[in-house]
Amino acid sequence: MTQLDRIRNFSIVAHIDHGKSTLADRLIQSTGTVADRDMKAQILDSMDIERERGITIKAQTVRLEYKARDGHTYTLNLIDTPGHVDFAYEVSRSMRAVEGSLLVVDASQGVEAQTLANVYHALDAGHEIVPVLNKIDLPAAEPERIKQQIEDVIGLDAHDAILISAKSGLGIPDVLEAIVTRLPAPKGDRTAPLKAMLVDSWYDSYLGVVVMIRVMDGVVKKGDRIKMMQTGAVYGIDRLAVLRPQMVEIGELGPGEIGVFTASIKQVRDTRVGDTITHERRPCTTALPGFKPSQPVVFCGLFPVDAADFEPLRDAIEKLTLNDASFTSEMETSAALGFGFRCGFLGLLHLEVVRDRLEREYNLDLITTAPSVVYRLHLRDGSVRELHNPADMPDLTLVDHIEEPRIKATIMVPDDYLGDVLKLCQDRRGIQMDLTYAGSRALVVYDLPLNEVVFDFYDRLKSVTKGYASFDYVIIGYREDFLVKMSVLVNEEPVDALSMMVHRDRAEARGRAMVEKLKELIPRHMFKIPIQAAIGSRVIARETLSAMRKDVTAKCYGGDATRKRKLLDKQKAGKKKMRQFGKVEIPQAAFISALKMDD
């Protein structure tokens, strides 16, 4: 049993690549939580895909024991959070489980757009924030200028920010002392009925569903009967543990503590993130306020390459939805691709990560359709419909007007690249809302249509600013615009997966780029293939993929020209017949590449 005033719960927040996971490594190492021989870089990034991409996707927790300078031993619960805007939901819900945050800022790069976004998450959760300047051993580090910048841009007092280098371990003892002295202890009543928040849950093939909780009031012990307040399900706790990062079993968890339990939970959908857990016999009266459900922004279809994989895909999606509450799915069917799921994501990186996890962790081969956003159709009879998939667009005579989602994008960019960024935003039908300066960096605020951002806006932004710009966005609502559905026909057959909504003024350029790209990507067949882009019945762009031809006249040398003619005519007739019955195979890579449009 740990005294409340000896517990500190905190998270580490920062922009991408400012050193959150490395700082977590140093804290784990300097408190002796993991033996040096078991230590590896980014120890909390346990998924293969996190280690490969060098990013954090899931928020991870670890419990540290620290003997402070005042002679007492403190229990520190650390949550390492992601920095990407696509995983902001992961950040906001980790914040609810802790009382304070370390704000890590790179001493050479300074405050960036997602630093701001993550600080606002922490402030919304009522956190005490300790600023930490990382990478001060770099030659380009300017700690004094960055301290001033934190005060100007965020409004936090940064004169006593801690200077560290997470890579070399410089300044780590000061960070540990600051956690103990500057962050508040949790509050809670040991004698009250149990009230715990379900922070996260994941599926383990040996233990079943593992549930992470933060205890607010009361005590939970091994063998207790507990009840989930949202679902009403009752379970008996088999094991209680804390993460160091491996599971270490303990007898009980008291107020302010973070731990995990297993309770022979078979159904993944019974553990809803944000639920309140209490005792079956002596329940608490009010549930904790849950997390507000995340709003998916990008939708796309996931279909198994082999139709027999549909059931395994359904199981995999169910297990993943448990672990990642911001990912939504519903069944759909497509003429070309059979049965699959229409899935919602928080952004394109999120989509890629989920697809990679499904393919890797569950051995599936998937086809992904074009990502699209949700449009609102106002029909002539006065009703309003949501359109998730451009292939489901009703007849245009029934539609009065179409509205598209708009976002407010905040871009921070050095002066030199400002012109390129403004041009990029104008090209994407943006409306400038604000332009201010913080030192030598411009803070640009634009109102942009979401469907122009979904595809490759972030990639383009990084390339025109040589990687120096940072970008964050929030959805602000819907607005009417002149939108049309563009279909792509290959060999005169419409391809569902490639139909998309575009602005009428852009349709021809977009259609031409699309068919030219497909011409390069689709392998040649034995017959000629027309590739067309059309709006309704009007074709706006066309390319023809020429046939592979066998040289049938090779064996004719000399003799009359009519012999060659006869063989060529015979070949021509065969190709014509082939074209009527031939099926065109479009490789999966072609779908994805065709959708990554470069203007």
Question: Can you describe this structure?
Answer:
This protein is an alpha+beta fold and 599 residues long. It folds into 5 domains: 4-182, P-loop containing nucleotide triphosphate hydrolases (Rossmann fold, 3-Layer(aba) Sandwich), CATH 3.40.50; 195-279, Translation factors (Elongation Factor Tu (Ef-tu), domain 3, Beta Barrel); 298-371, Alpha-Beta Plaits (2-Layer Sandwich), CATH 3.30.70; 376-481, Alpha-Beta Plaits (2-Layer Sandwich), CATH 3.30.70; 484-595, Elongation factor 4, C-terminal domain (Alpha-Beta Plaits). The protein contains 14 helices and 31 strands. It has an 8-stranded antiparallel β-sheet with strand order 11-10-16-7-8-15-12-13, covered by helices on one side. A 6-stranded mixed β-sheet has the order 2-3-1-4-5-6, with helices on both faces. α3 runs parallel beside α4 (113-124) and α12 (507-521) packs antiparallel against α14 (588-595). The radius of gyration is 28 Å and the shape is globular. The model has no long low-confidence stretch (mean pLDDT 79).
